[in-house]
Write a structure and sequence with these properties.
The complex is a heterodimer of chains A (263) and B (679). Chain A has 263 residues and is an alpha/beta fold. Chain A has one domain: Rossmann fold, CATH 3.40.50.620. Chain A is globular, with a radius of gyration of 21 Å. Chain B is mainly α. Chain B has 4 domains: 221 residues, no CATH class; 107 residues, Alpha-helical ferredoxin (Fumarate Reductase Iron-sulfur Protein, Chain B, domain 2, Orthogonal Bundle), CATH 1.10.1060.10; 144 residues, Rossmann fold (3-Layer(aba) Sandwich), CATH 3.40.50; 114 residues, Rossmann fold. Helix content of chain B is 51%, strand content 4%. Chain B has 26 helices and 9 strands. Classes of the chains: A alpha/beta (263), B mainly alpha (679). Chains A and B meet through α5 of A and α16 and α20 of B.
């Protein structure tokens, strides 16, 4: 079972006060720390778990710059066998569609049984890559998958639906599966584990090697143009409930009843 | 009347000295072989240098080994043990003499003839009775009163029966001695006052109705029974939990001397990163001293009785680690037969479970209590190192550690904002020391003091105090990284090296006289674990000094007559022996009414731990440690709990709320309290 996992490096915005940069089309990223997209961490872990059970090889791939190496090394430490960095100056400004086509170009050059991605990226929350990638490759896709069971030639995936429902699908391989967070418990990757994979070479693949036209990548190839990025205006109606815990609880219950939150 | 001595009575036609020689040789041969097997295992496992500071080690062996100084921490059982041990030492001379009497009826040890021997014989006769009484009391105590401390938890089969075997054998030794001497006295009559030989007199009285020929038989039979029991006992020791009779004093001699520190990943290895495996996953990855600990555990249960994790219902019971490990050792390295291969079932995770391993807060209560200095923290850390290597780490701890790796603090905050808290200070300038700067005191704020809104209050208080004292001080600001105390104790050695080397680099780039930290964890790790040594002080020590020197004076009525208790933080008290300075500071506070909790000083009760442990979620516990602690404070009627650790503060403040004591008990850090009283 050869599995290719597509991952993305995203800024950690959880504990920071975000600011919009001068152009008004992005946030200021200078002071931000970057890490693997949380959803993708689960995808890599799932790939390694499948490999540990069924054998095969796990390959990681990302579109980005050399700063992505740390993320890829962590994936190798987690148990991936090899990692590729798809990088080219012309990729700057790529949207989800272009990123999918770059990844598709890479995938078409290789053999694989299963492609895993996270369903969503924490930064732009597009949630489109898995589907577009599958379309470009002409293979089936399942998203928001929280259970993967690889069989002979097919894969059974369980998807989260509305209202707590789940469905299980049996899809033919090769396929693209976009996983949900919580599909597994990602193992802890220690500093030593990363150190141990320090000697594994991470090849960089550029646009030409992927056989892509310059006009098809980066902002030139992008189908989406960001008009403006802004912080949501401060709303009204927030109330800090003062008083003793008992009084506060009474007041909270009142509000919830008023607004129809509880019967 | 004549009485034939055992040496002069052939047994089944064989001269007694030959029988004595055979018994002696067989017993010693078996004993030597068993000991050889035990020592072979010690030699097969990992090295551990334990020969530094010989003088201090001899002192330890004298005070805590022969002196049994930790025994009276449990007063009743302790006194009984001291009596038994003293009896054991005193009667060992008697045992040697009796062995010799199998060869010659007039045998005595060198210098033990004549007057000295007579005085000894009188003395030992009293000791025999004392030991017998203690054994009977101990048997009754175990059988009737069943102290909970002796009960086993978990799935290990109990070893309680062994206690009865040993107590029975020791009693048998005393009784056979009594028969041997008593029968002689009954035949020969009293040569001396009965008060001189109470055991013999008692024996004679008990056999008063026997005729002379029976007494002759009893005299010889009592002797041989004594010899047989003695050698059986000797050989029982190394196959039971009573091995401690032999190993305890060496175990104390080889005790860990540098308290508060964690052992390196592997002794004698320069670059542990290059090791094939790290930590203790297989049994053979413990050090020889750790295996000697396993051999030595007497299953007394004092560690678990004091373990906060055990107390609140977590899976951990420290002594079960020793008991299970010894069972494992004896099963896989048997006295007879080939060593057993465990296959692909590693020791760590199977024999000792992950739940047990992660339940420990490293508070050190177990190690403090063990009468023979068995260590637990280093073993747990070694097992964690193995688990971390396998990618196993409780989910609740992964995030904070990831944050430390990325950002140098568990709070996920940007490191450039480490000095932000100083902006809220009024009238106090806190200097962010740049590379090359010099100051007197380097205030190590640590991540908690920089980012936790509650703990920032302590940072501010301490800055005000430092400012008032007139001492020149500064902080590292953005160049500071998490101190790493818990990181190392959670088994993530690589990350510990990363954060500690960043801090060391930051320290080296600045000139200062001393480092001060109000978090005992930071204080401990810099003092005991950092590979480069810097002078470091805990805030409570510095406050005591300021007050002593008159650099600050206290005035006010914040406590307003409320009853105060002091909670000793584990990493200040047990791990670093700082008990007096915090109390000296409290003593200087006007109107202080201090009452100690039942558990205080070395017996303080952990609040559930610091650093990333603040995020740790345990599913087994029935109660939070902090809640238990607050109840202890409530028990003595305390209205204020003063502590000297920011994590104790957070845990106890939470517990005050969850135990319904809000408004009744206030928790305050010593630094904040002093700040409130700054004149």
């Amino acid at each position: 079972m050869d599995i290719i996992v597509c991952v993305k490096r995203v800024p950690d915005t959880s504990e920071t006060d975000l600011a919009i940069d001068k152009g008004g089309k992005d946030i200021q990223k200078g002071d931000l720390d970057y890490d693997i997209n949380d959803w993708d961490r689960f995808a890599v872990e799932e790939a390694v778990l499948i490999k540990e059970k069924a054998g095969g090889k796990v390959t990681m791939v990302t579109v980005g710059d050399e700063d992505a190496e740390e993320m890829l090394r962590e994936g190798l430490a987690r148990g991936a066998d090899e990692a590729f960095l798809l990088s080219d100056e012309s990729f700057e400004g790529s949207d989800g569609y272009v990123t999918a086509s770059i990844l598709a170009a890479f995938l078409k050059q290789r053999s694989y049984d299963l492609v895993l991605t996270g369903t969503l990226a924490d930064d732009d929350c597009g949630g489109q890559l898995g589907g577009m990638l599958a379309a470009m490759l002409g293979v089936p896709v399942a998203t928001l998958v929280h259970k993967v069971d690889v069989k002979d030639g097919t894969v059974a995936v369980t998807r989260e639906l509305e209202a707590g429902l789940s469905e299980t699908l049996d899809i033919d391989l090769p396929a693209v599966v976009s996983v949900a967070t919580g599909i597994n418990e990602p193992r802890f990757v220690s500093i030593r584990a990363v150190r141990k994979v320090a000697s594994i070479e991470i090849p960089t693949v550029d646009r030409e090697e992927l056989g892509l036209d310059e006009a098809a990548v980066g902002s030139a190839g992008a189908k989406v143009e960001i008009e403006t990025v802004f912080l949501p205006p401060e709303g009204e109606g927030a109330e800090i409930i003062a008083g003793s815990p008992v009084d506060a609880a009474v007041r909270l219950a009142e509000i919830l009843k008023e607004k129809g939150g509880i019967a | 009347m004549t009485l034939l001595e055992p040496a002069d009575v052939p047994l089944a036609g064989i001269p007694a000295p030959i029988v004595a020689a055979i018994i002696l040789l067989v017993a010693i041969a078996i004993f030597s072989y068993v000991m050889l097997r035990r020592i072979q295992l010690l030699r097969a496992v990992l090295p551990d240098p334990r020969l530094s500071e010989i003088g201090r080690r001899i002192w330890l062996a004298l005070v805590y080994g022969f002196g049994q100084a930790r025994q009276p921490r449990y007063l009743g059982a302790g006194i009984m043990h001291i009596l038994l041990f003293a009896g054991f030492v005193i009667l060992s001379l008697r045992s040697l003499t009796l062995i010799g009497r199998g060869f010659s009826s007039t045998f005595h040890l060198p210098l033990m003839g004549g007057g000295v021997g007579f005085v000894y014989d009188v003395f030992k006769d009293y000791v025999v009775l004392v030991v017998l009484v203690v054994c009977i009391v101990a048997i009754v105590r175990r059988a009737v009163f069943k102290p909970t401390r002796y009960q086993h938890t978990g799935n290990s089969e109990g070893h309680g029966a062994e206690a009865y075997v040993i107590l029975g054998m020791v009693s048998a030794l005393m009784i056979t001695d009594l028969i041997y001497d008593g029968s002689a006295m009954a035949v020969r009559g009293h040569t001396f006052s009965p008060a001189l030989f109470p055991a013999a007199t008692l024996g004679a009285a008990l056999m008063g109705n026997a005729n002379e020929s029976s007494l002759r038989v009893l005299h010889v039979a009592g002797y041989w029974a004594h010899i047989l029991v003695f050698f059986t006992l000797l050989n029982y020791l190394p196959i039971s939990k009573h091995f401690h009779v032999i190993t305890a004093i060496p175990n104390v001699f080889f005790a860990k001397l540098n308290k508060g520190s964690i052992k390196p990943v592997r002794w004698g290895v320069d670059d542990w990163m290059e090791l094939e495996e790290c930590g203790a996953g297989r049994f053979e990855q413990f050090t020889w001293k750790h295996v000697l600990d396993f051999y030595s555990c007497a299953d007394c249960g004092r560690c678990s009785d004091n373990c906060p994790a055990s107390t609140v219902g977590r899976a951990l019971s420290p002594r079960m680690i020793s008991i299970k490990a010894r069972d494992y050792a004896y099963e896989h390295y048997p006295v007879f037969g080939a060593n057993k291969d465990p296959g692909d079932k590693p020791f760590t995770g199977n024999i000792v479970t992950e739940q047990e391993i992660w339940a420990c807060t490293t508070c050190g209560a177990c190690e403090q209590e063990c009468p023979i200095f068995i260590e637990y923290i280093d073993k747990i850390v070694d097992m964690r190192r193995y688990l971390v290597e396998q990618g196993e780490m409780p989910a609740s701890l992964q995030k904070p550690l990831q944050q430390i790796k990325k950002k140098g603090n568990a709070y996920g905050a940007t490191k450039t904002k480490r000095a932000e808290w100083t902006k809220a200070l009024e009238g106090v300038q806190v200097k962010e020391l740049q590379q090359g700067d010099a100051t007197d005191t380097l205030f190590f704020v640590d991540s908690c003091g920089s980012f936790d809104p509650r703990i920032q209050e302590i940072s501010k208080s301490f800055a005000r105090i430092l400012n008032r004292s007139g001492v020149e001080f500064g902080i590292l600001g953005k160049d500071e990284t998490d101190s790493g105390n818990e990181i190392r104790r959670l088994g993530e050695e690589g990350l510990f090296e990363q954060v500690s080397s960043k801090n060391i680099e930051a320290f080296r780039a600045r000139a200062f006289r001393e480092i001060v930290a109000f978090d005992p964890h930071a204080f401990n790790v810099i003092r005991n674990d950092y590979p480069v040594k810097f002078p470091v002080t805990h805030a409570s020590q510095m406050l005591a000094r300021f007050l002593e020197q008159g650099k600050i004076t206290l005035k006010g009525d914040y406590l307003a007559g409320r009853l105060v208790t002091y909670h000793d933080p584990c990493y200040l008290g047990r791990h670093n022996g700082v008990y007096d300075e915090p109390r000296a500071v409290l003593g200087r506070i006007p109107g202080m009414r201090l009452r100690e909790m039942h558990r205080s000083f070395t017996r303080s009760f952990c609040c559930s731990g610091g650093g990333p442990l603040l995020w740790y979620e345990n599913e087994e516990e029935k109660e939070r440690m902090g809640e238990r602690r607050v109840k202890m404070a409530a028990e003595i009627g305390a209205q204020v709990i003063v502590t000297a650790c920011p994590f104790c503060l957070i845990n106890l403040e939470d517990a005050v709320k969850t135990t319904g004591n809000e408004g009744k008990i206030e928790v305050i850090d010593m630094v904040e309290l002093v700040d409130r009283y700054l004149a």
